[in-house]
Structure formats: C-alpha cells, structure tokens
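Subject: Putative acyl-CoA thioesterase YneP

B.,
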Amino acid sequence: MKTTTPIEVRYQETDQMGVVYHANYLVWFEIGRTKFIESLGFCYADMEKDGVVSPVTNAQISFKKPIRYGEKVLIETWLDHYDGLRTVYGYHILNEVDEIAVSGKTEHVIVKKENFRPLSVRKAFPDWHEAYMSALEKTGDV
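Prediction pasted inline below.
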C-alpha cells in the first residue's frame, strides 16, 4: 500500500546550486507521511489532542539525482515496518520522468507530550494498530 503526493518545487526550497536543499526532503517526507496516515483514515492532530506526539527517532536519506526549482515531483510513501511500538515509513521522491531521485526512511515512536514517556501504539491507539497491520498485509511484509 502506497500513497502518492504531488509537490511542485518552490524557489525557496533550493540552494545556491539551484537544487533542492537537502533538509527540505525531510519536510517532504513529513508531507507524504501525513497523507499516508490520512489515507488510513487518521490524523496526527487527533493523536495530539490526546496529549501524544510522534517524534522521529531515526532518519535515513539517499540522494540519487538532483531536483531543481519548477520541477513537479511525486512523494511515494508506504509503511516499511511496524511492530506495535516503532513505525518505519519508506519514501521515494520521483522526478518528472519517474526516476527515484531521493529515497529514505523515518522511524517513529509515540510518546506522552508532557514527559516524552514512550507508549505502545497497539495499546494506546488500537484502531491505528489495526490499520497499520492491514497496510503491512497489503504490502506482504507481515
């Protein structure tokens, strides 16, 4: 199961070399991840209303081809791994000719906002857990 999110590269996202500044890919990953979660019928804001946040605990990015101002790209996002506690999302940034320009993964946990104490997704948000398990089944990774 993958979601695809279009992005049009804005001038302010580029560096002096005229290519997308590397940190902006993490922002794009977040946009893709948010759309993926919405495709499952959920919203981060609802989780935050319960005093829970989902920090990134690890990020990996591989740059393969430059992306430049004015290009239209696609963010492919999928659930790469989930074990009830940690969630790993995978990403491909595809250029205008459908080549993978950037790939990456981000790993997340959920924690109580006031003390950053870790929580189990399985126990705290059983509906999210079921949706994640279903998404993994659709990719054949369970």
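The mean pLDDT is 93.

T.
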